Amino acid sequence: NMEENIENAHEICTHDGVLLKKVNSNCMVELNTTGSINLIHSLATNELWIEWRPNDGFLISDTDTQEQDEWSFVDTIVRRNRTTSESLIFNTNTNNITVKESQAQTPPKQRIIRVKLKDLKSVEVLKNGLVIKLIGRADGRPHSEYVFQHGNADNFVRSLSSTHCLQRNHRNRNVYDVVEDHNRPQDRDKLQKTFAELQIDDIKSGSGWISNMMRRPYEQTMDIFAKIADVYVATPVSPTSSSPDNSRSPAGQNVSPSNVMMQSTTEDYEVLSTSPRLLGSDSEAVTVPNPAKRSGSPETPHLPAVEVQPRGQPLSEMVWRSMINEDGSIPSEKVDLIKEKIFRGGIEDDIRAELWKFLLDYDLWANTSQQREHRRSNKRIEYYTMKSQWLRMTPVQESNFSDFRDRKCQIEKDVKRTDRTHEYFAGDDNPNLETLHELLMTYVMYNFDLGYVQGMSDLLAPILYVMQCEKDAFWCFVGFMDRVFSNFDMDQAGMKRQLHDLTRLLAFANPRLHGYFVETGSDNMYFCFRWLLVWFKREFSQDDIMRLWEVLWTGLPCINYHLFISLAILDGETDTIIGNKYEFNEILKHVNELSMRLDLDTILAKAEAIYQQVKSAPHLTDEIRGIIGEEPVEKVTEIHTDSDDESDAVISGPTKSVEEEEKLQKKIEEALEQSMYFNFY
C-alpha cells in the first residue's frame, strides 16, 4: 500500500526529520531521503495508518563531507518553511556541498509510503532510539526502516502506544507487538474525556497522569479506575443516606439507594425487592416476567417467567463435617452438595478458611487427610523456595533486571493503599502489609510472564485476611489467579472478551437498556471495567465480597456467572439511567457511586433469576450458549490427530531419576533454610 489514498483522514501525530533507510523495491528512489512520519486515523474506515512522506525540496548529497552519521542534506532552490524539529538537522557543513541543478529537469514523482497498522506484526526500536523497523504481519519480514535524526524514535512509539495498539514484548524490550484489536480512537477519547469531566483532582494533579496514560495505557487505566473508586467511596454512606433519585421516589420517601434500585416502577414488570417475603422462607418466591416487555418493542422475543429463589443459610460446620469420610476425603457426590449449599448461602465464618482451600484448588476434594498434609508440606517448601529467590537478589542484580525492579516498585506503591480502611491492614508499620508485599513479590517469581499488575493486591487482601497464614494465602491466591489471569493480559484481550460477552448478554436479557446504551454510544461497557477486573472488590464491603467470591468460586450455575452479577446490577439501574437520560460520562459516574450501596443478597437472587430466564429461552442462540458454557445446537465436527499427543510428550520432557530428585530436594531445603533465616532473623 504505497500509494493508497486515505479517505477522510485525521492526523494524530507527526514526527519530522525521519530518513528512509530501507524499503521494498517500489520505493528505492526515495532511499536516504528525509521526510516526516505520521500516524493517521481514517475516519471513513476507522483504521490507523503509518505514513512516511518525503519532504519537498531536499536532495541527498553524495559528497564525502558529511558530519552527521552517513547522510548529509542539501537545500535546493525550491524551498518551504521548515518546522522547528526539522531545522535541528541543518547543522552540517555545507561549504563544500554542490547544489544539484534540478530546475532544468522534471523532479521525479514522490513516493508516499503507507501501511495499515493492523498489517504490521511489530515495531522494533534500534540503535538507542535512532531507528525503528516495521515488521509485516503476513510474512514476518521487515516492511521498512527509518532513521530518526533527532533520536526521537521513542517519542513516535509513545504516540503509537497512546492509541492502545502496542504492547511491549516480554522477551525483547526493544520490540513492541501490534495489538490486532486495539481500541477505536473515538472510544479512547471518550474514556479520557470522561476522566477530565469528572474533575477528579487526585487524578489530574498527579504527576504525569496524562503522559503515563500514553506510556503505560493499560496500567494507568486501571490506576485511574481505582482512584475513581477511592474518590467516591471516601465518605462513608449510612444505610439511611438519601439517593440522588429521592425526589422521584413515591411520596418523597427517603430510601437507600439499594431499595430505590429494586423498586417496581411499571405495572407490567415486577422488580425484586428487599422485603422479607423475598428473603424469607424457601417456600416463597417472586415471579420475574420478561424484561423485554419494558422495551415496548413487539418484535423483541419474550424471555420466560421464572421463580426467584431466596437466599439460603450458610454452610455450617456440622453439615460440613457430616460430608467428610473417615479418611478425610470427600466423595464427588458430596462435593456437588457442598458447592450447591455454598452457592445458596455461602459459608459460616468458622470454617471459611478451610473451605476456601478446596474451592481454590489448594486442597483436593478426593485426597485423604494424610495425602492433603503431604501436599501442603510440598507446597510450603515450594513457596519458601520462590520467596528465597527474590529475598536473596542483590542490589546489582536488581539494577540489571528492569522488569523485576519495575514490578517491585509497583507492588510497594499498591500495597500502601490496599484496604487501609480495613482494621486488618490499617495503621503504619502494619505487619500484615509486609506480608501482603511478600506474597505479591513471591507471585512474581511464581509467574514471571504475568508478574504483577495493578488490581492483584485487591484480590489477595481478602484471602490473606481469611487465611491468616502466609503460605496458605499464597496458594489460594494462585488458585484465584488461575481463574482470572486473563483480566491482567497486557493486550487486554481477556477484558475485551468479557466486555463483549457482557454486551451480548445484556442485549439478550435486557434489550431496552442495551438499546439505550447503543443510542448514547455507551455500548462499549467501559463503566463495567472495574467490576470485572477485580470481581466487584470495590463495590461491596469486606464481608459481602467474601460471600460473593465463594459463591462465584463454586462454578455454579455456569461459567462466566460473574457476568450475570453485572447484569443484575445494571437491571436494577435501568430506570434510573434511562429516566435521567444519562450519557456515557454520567453512566460511569453513576456506576461508581453505587460502590458500597448495593444489596448483595438481592443481587445474587436476581442474577440467578436472569440466568434461568436466559438458559430457558426458546430463542437462545449458540453465541449465548457458548458464553454460559452450554453445548451449541449446530455442532462443528472436529478432526483429531495424534500430533497433540506427540507435542504433549515433547513438552513434558524426560523423567528425573531418583538421584536427580534427591539432589533437587537438597537444593530446595537449602534455599528454604536460607529463606527462613533472612526472613525471620
Automatic annotation (TrEMBL):
Residues 346-556 form the Rab-GAP TBC domain. It is found in: Cytoplasm. Keywords: Acetylation, Cytoplasm, GTPase activation, Phosphoprotein. GO terms for molecular function: GTPase activator activity. It comes from the Eukaryota. Transmembrane segments: none annotated. Residues 237-260, 280-311, 639-662 are annotated as: Disordered. Residues 237-250 have a biased composition (Low complexity). SUPFAM superfamilies: Ypt/Rab-GAP domain of gyp1p (SSF47923). Residues 251-260 have a biased composition (Polar residues). InterPro entries: Rab-GAP-TBC_dom, Rab-GAP_TBC_sf. It holds the Pfam family RabGAP-TBC. One of its GO terms (cellular component) is cytoplasm. Interacts with non-phosphorylated form of RAB8A; phosphorylation of RAB8A at 'Thr-72' disrupts this interaction. Interacts with ARMC12. Acts as a GTPase activating protein for RAB7A. Does not act on RAB4, RAB5 or RAB6. This is TBC1 domain family member 15.
